[in-house]
Specification:
By secondary structure, the chain is of the alpha+beta class. The protein has 3 domains: about 190 residues, Spore Coat Polysaccharide Biosynthesis Protein SpsA, Chain A, CATH 3.90.550; about 230 residues, Spore Coat Polysaccharide Biosynthesis Protein SpsA, Chain A; about 200 residues, no CATH class. About 30% of the residues lie in helices and about 25% in strands. A hairpin with a 5-residue loop joins strand 5 and strand 6. It starts with a strand and ends with a strand.
């Protein structure tokens, strides 16, 4: 379709067009995130790894040989030498150079709009000045690139171009994007928007719920950013901060600034620690009680948000054909061009979360661009979205209730599954994202959090597993506990058994445990050597062994699955033997967290093992008596779990409505408020 061309003075706003995505260009972007917004194009050539197929596989190069698919080669880490971003927010391609907006934040995720809305085409408006070409591309679900439209510009004055682009080819996947290519003079992109013609022009109203615990720096900075965003403020009813720590965000120097900018849209609730599920349930409850918001956006306190992503999420929810939860994707806060979560799913037989099918964790856009990464072009359907960023319609909350009282872990997954069962799917929307501390920097399966992992995984399985006895879930739980035993992680093993006992006791205790179980679990771990931590390795005796490893073997090396099985067998046998005497006076080695594989630790009688975050370490010591006792109890509890699964599942499902009801949660909140005292600040002022 040929574009219509007018000068910017003549351009008029099309009646019924609603903008859903603006092209983002900022002069102050740091180079490590520039690849997510704009890239330089150096040449057309052979694609690494097979490319994306612009010219088709098997085309002949100048030498007559068969070449790989041909594509543009993009400069991922910056645009120096290809163009620049001006202080006015214009992207300028240098003479004879090309810039691409086929990037994470600026490509248009057409397949998601095709799947979840009723629109048949999208309207692209572009304002350019200078001399050169605009080239519009689309991709297929296979990652092949198709040239869709193009237009030439030769004008010192701004020229407005408009295109109506079909959505029909995007049933399984694909994106739209465009490049700008300068001729002998510069070509500047001043503005570009993607829009739909619709009679639904009004934005839904938004409450933002942030749960925070002892991260006042992060939380205060996030509030300031929200208060300085006109796009967010236009949508915003209220920002509800649920502060559950003893380092209050209200005491941070930047809180006054945030309070001034947000005014009466800021509400601070201070309560005792109920974890993420308690904090987010409080935020949802407050927003629903107020009654004016269409959506609640749940945000972690330790995220940096691309604020335009909030507007995109709200707009997508407004225009979806049915009520949907809209999730944001997660980039690493430390390595900011790396995406850790494109989409999340649950494997039903194992009942464990992981990347959605056909996706990968750890996509680095500074190394592989959107255009050259084939799997990114498939539309991904998810089971849920993490609550680092998730938009929930208040209609859904009123119908299905608040979070389960899980404290932490699995609350977001369970809520997403419950919403889907009620007819409200989750859409993880590309182009809407936050930067968050990645889980690769944590290991929350070893400390007190192991209790909540175990209990909440089992409870979620009892509620939602499609299999009569949870598929492989009980067996995996047994295997996991056995691995902790051969790894000398007795404190973790003990809290796993406590979680099993609590699950078997039934759902009635879950709200009670919100207030008390964390303290009890921490106290329990202190009775075990692996549950006590030191900040400095010098606090431990120097490693020493009476005899060196046989033939100098490295117990940490396993070349194959057979090798792992052999180590597992020998590790199990040695659990019945008396530990080497010297291992009680000296650890047999220092084991970095990255190397603490269970089959390696199973070969040792003691070891100092560092924590995932690199701040502390613990001394693991093998204890045959503890091993035998916990293994016996584990077998009994897991046998009970399988035997009682059908009846237990019915109990949890029958109690679900009460556990998640606002009335039950209100009783929990009121009990805490009585202990903490009046704790609501509104607009920076104390209120009731």
């Amino acid at each position: 379709m040929s574009p219509t061309t007018t000068t910017s003075d003549e351009a008029a706003t099309s009646v019924g067009l609603r903008t859903v995505q603006r092209t983002l260009m900022r002069a102050d972007q740091e180079l490590d995130v520039r690849a997510l917004y704009v890239g330089g194009v150096s040449h057309f050539g052979a694609a690494e790894g097979g490319g994306t197929g612009q010219a088709g596989a098997g085309s002949e190069d100048s030498g007559g040989k068969k070449s790989k698919d041909v594509e543009t080669t993009e400069v991922a880490q910056g645009i120096q030498g290809f163009g620049r971003i001006t202080d006015a927010g214009h992207a300028v391609a240098e003479p004879t150079k090309r810039l691409t907006f086929g990037t994470y934040f600026n490509a248009f995720p057409a397949s998601y709009w095709r799947r979840w809305t009723e629109f048949s085409s999208v309207h692209l408006s572009v304002t350019l000045s200078g001399q050169g070409n605009l080239i519009i591309y689309r991709s297929t679900a296979k990652g092949h690139v198709v040239r869709a439209e193009s237009a030439r510009v030769d004008s010192a004055e701004p020229v407005h171009l408009e295109f109506e682009l079909p959505l029909a080819p995007f049933i399984d996947g694909g994106w739209y994007w465009f490049d700008i290519e300068a001729d002998e003079r510069e070509l500047a992109l001043e503005e570009a928007t993607w829009a739909f013609e619709t009679d639904r022009q009004a934005h839904g109203r938004l409450s933002i719920g942030i749960t925070t615990f002892n991260r006042p720096d992060f939380c205060a900075a996030q509030l300031v950013n929200l208060g300085e965003s006109p796009e967010v403020l236009d949508l915003l009813d209220e920002v509800i901060v649920v502060d559950q720590g003893n380092q209050r965000v209200s005491d941070h120097p930047d809180f006054a600034r945030a309070s001034e900018k947000l005014g009466d849209k800021l509400k601070l609730v201070e309560q005792a620690n109920l974890g993420g599920s308690g904090g987010f349930s409080r935020a949802m409850s407050e927003a629903v009680s107020r009654g004016s918001s269409d959506y609640v956006l749940l945000l972690d306190d330790d995220v940096v948000c691309e604020l335009h992503g909030i507007e995109r999420a709200v707009t997508f929810a407004d225009l979806a054909r049915q009520p949907v939860l809209v999730g944001g994707q997660m980039f690493s806060l430390y390595d900011r061009s790396v995406m850790h979560a494109f989409g999340e799913s649950l494997a039903p037989w194992r009942w464990f979360w992981g990347p959605a099918p056909a996706t990968k964790h750890g996509q680095d856009f500074s190394r592989r661009t959107l255009r050259s990464t084939k799997w990114l072009h498939r539309r991904i359907d998810v089971d849920y979205n993490g609550w680092w960023m998730c938009l929930v319609p208040t209609k859904v909350i009123r119908e299905i209730g608040l979070s389960l009282p899980m404290f932490i872990k699995w609350d977001d997954a369970e809520f997403g599954l419950r919403a889907r069962a009620a007819g409200y799917p989750t859409v993880t929307l590309p182009g809407s994202a936050v930067w968050h501390v990645p889980w690769t920097e944590k290991d929350d399966t070893l400390d007190w959090q192991a209790y909540f992992h175990e209990r909440n995984r089992l409870v979620t399985g009892l509620l939602h597993s499609p299999y009569e006895r949870g598929g492989r879930l009980a067996l995996e739980s047994l295997e996991n506990h056995a691995k902790r035993m051969v790894s000398m992680q007795y404190s973790t093993g003990e809290v796993i058994l406590l979680a099993l006992e609590d699950v078997l006791a039934g759902p009635e205790r879950m709200h009670r445990d919100m207030s008390f179980r964390l303290k009890e679990v921490r106290e329990l771990r202190e009775h075990f050597t692996d549950g006590r931590v030191e900040k400095d390795l010098s606090a431990f005796p120097a490693p020493r062994m009476k005899k060196p490893p046989k033939r100098g073997r490295d117990t940490g090396v396993a070349q194959s699955k057979l090798s792992v099985l052999k180590k597992a067998a020998t590790g199990l046998v040695r659990q019945t033997r008396k530990p080497r005497e010297l291992s009680r006076q000296h650890p047999e080695g220092l084991v970095p967290h990255v190397d603490q594989r269970w089959w390696r630790l199973a070969q040792m009688d003691s070891a100092v093992v560092s924590a995932a975050d690199g701040t502390s370490a613990s001394w693991y010591q093998r204890d045959p008596q503890l091993f035998a006792d916990q293994m016996r109890r584990s077998a009994v509890l897991h046998r009970r779990l399988l035997q009682e699964w059908p009846a237990l599942s019915r109990r949890y499902r029958e109690s679900l409505g009460d556990l998640t009801s606002p009335e039950t949660w209100k009783q929990t909140f009121e009990g805490l408020d009585d202990a903490v005292g009046p704790g609501t600040l509104q607009g920076g002022r104390v209120g009731d």
